[in-house]
Design brief:
This protein is α+β, with helices and mostly antiparallel strands and 433 residues long. Helices cover 39% and strands 11% of the residues. The structure holds S-adenosylmethionine. It comes from Selaginella moellendorffii.
Length: 433
């Protein structure tokens, strides 16, 4: 880290025609970090909010381990991502021995203090200054969220609160991708704030792929607004209802009807977004064409945002204590652990759009991969080299679990991403077959 510009986005020389690719600007050793990138926009999955109480901007866990456990225990069973949703309370109680209600009484009891909680301190919760339920890990995250998009998406201050709530509920019920789209609508003002660990000069290079973007930020005239929209809109220019892969359970004969339903969903979401956020100067941004391209771009380029759970680490720590101390500690923590069941290990999950990461092409013999180290405790994407990479080489990750798959199986999986693979391995194997 800290060795200067490490990667460069180039439109030329990518193996795939005039598409963009990411290239090493210096040599990298195996396991070395190539890139740490903050998302341009990201959102925690709505169903995950009780599993992980995180900063609404950087996705770092906040509060305390006690608060995190409490929220998991308070969550309705169906909201948890990793529990058996079908089990009724009684069966669940029987399985774990202690019910969530019993564990909550213990946790909220006077003077209760979680043993060894001080080894897992988390940043204090900073509430949204607009008075909504959004929380942050610091004032600076709160301010950045406010300036990026939240000043317009905060239902504490919005003049169209009811419409905004309807838009958000619709996104929760149908597709989280609409939350991202609404953030884009306002993040476009601040697109030039792209942060990147190695060098801010990269911003200019990222903008290469958007052809030409005004270098000024904060200007709110209509043309600048449209310019600022481009980094998102030009990521991958396919309309959502055309780009989305046909689900396995949809009969290919029903494809047209499936795609028109997806389009209707986008239209419904857009009309709610307009109702909630209408300002005359935003009008150009609210065409179905642009909205569809933005969501389509997310569909094709979204990356999972994943942050490991400190609650899981806490219980692993207890597990590893020396026997006498462990026994003493578990007198207190065992009921909590039993009541949590599998939820003890559920972690923060969301999705986001990463400008540089979205330029990385796929290879069935990749030289890099996404990898979170212990110190990566927020929603940034981290890419590490899986072998030595020489300066000038293109950086490739694999979009699929390709290792044990045949050429044909790999093509079938990649068709969900909308392309036939032209990597060197596929080129070799195609010619052999
Ligand atoms: C996430 S983008 C990568 C950046 C892309 N090259 C660009 O110019 O925006 C994924 C797209 O790149 C192209 N692509 C990536 N890997 C490829 C591969 N192995 N073979 C053919 N096309 C590939 C496909 O068009 C795919 O939809």
């Amino acid at each position: 880290m800290g060795k200067g510009i490490a990667v460069l986005v180039s439109l030329a020389n990518s193996s795939f025609g005039d598409l963009a690719g990411l290239f090493a600007e210096r040599d990298f050793d195996a396991e070395e970090v190539i890139l740490i990138e903050e998302p341009l926009v990201a959102a925690q999955h709505s169903h995950n909010k009780n599993d992980a109480v995180v900063c609404g901007f950087c996705f770092r866990y906040v509060g305390s381990i006690q608060l995190q456990i409490q929220r998991k225990l308070e969550a309705p069973e169906t909201q948890s991502c990793c529990c058996h949703e079908e089990e009724d309370d009684e069966e669940d109680h029987h399985r774990h021995g202690v019910s969530s209600e019993e564990a909550l009484v213990l946790l909220k009891g006077d003077g209760f203090s979680l043993p060894h909680g001080d080894k897992f301190l988390l940043p204090e919760v900073v509430k949204c200054s607009g008075g909504c339920s959004e929380i942050y890990c610091s004032k600076s995250c709160a301010q950045r969220a406010w300036h990026d998009h939240h000043s317009l998406l905060c239902d504490g201050v919005s003049q169209h609160r009811d419409e905004l709530v309807l838009f958000k509920e619709f996104a929760d019920e149908t597709n989280d991708i609409f939350h991202l789209a609404s953030k884009v609508a306002f993040a476009c003002f601040f697109v030039l704030r792209l942060c990147f660990t190695f060098s801010v000069q990269l911003i200019a290079k990222v903008m290469l792929r958007t052809k030409k973007l005004s270098e000024s930020s904060g200007v709110t005239d209509r043309n600048t607004l449209l310019e600022a929209w481009k980094p998102f809109a030009m990521g991958e220019k396919r309309l959502w209802w055309e780009a989305v892969a046909l689900p396995d359970d949809v009969d290919p004969l029903e494809e047209a009807s499936f795609r028109s339903q997806i389009k209707e969903l986008a239209e419904a979401s857009l009309s709610q977004l307009k109702a909630a956020l209408w300002e005359p100067e935003f009008a150009p941004l609210f065409s179905l064409e642009i909205y569809g391209s933005i969501i389509g771009m997310f569909e094709l380029n979204n990356l999972d945002v994943v942050v490991a759970s400190p609650v899981e680490n806490y219980f692993l720590y207890i597990q590893d204590l020396e026997p006498a101390l462990k026994e003493q500690t578990e007198q207190i923590t065992r009921p909590l652990f039993e009541a949590l069941g599998e939820k003890y290990a559920s972690f923060c999950q969301g999705s986001g759009f990463f400008a540089l990461h979205s330029c990385i092409n796929h290879s069935c013999e990749p030289n890099a991969k996404a990898f979170k180290r212990d110190e990566d405790i927020n929603g940034n994407a981290v890419i590490i080299a899986t072998r030595k990479i020489m300066k000038g080489e293109q950086i490739f990750t694999s979009y699929i679990e390709e290792e044990d798959l045949s050429y044909t199986e790999r093509q079938a999986m990649l068709s969900d991403y909308g392309f036939a693979c032209e990597c060197t391995k596929c080129f070799r194997e195609k010619n052999q077959s």
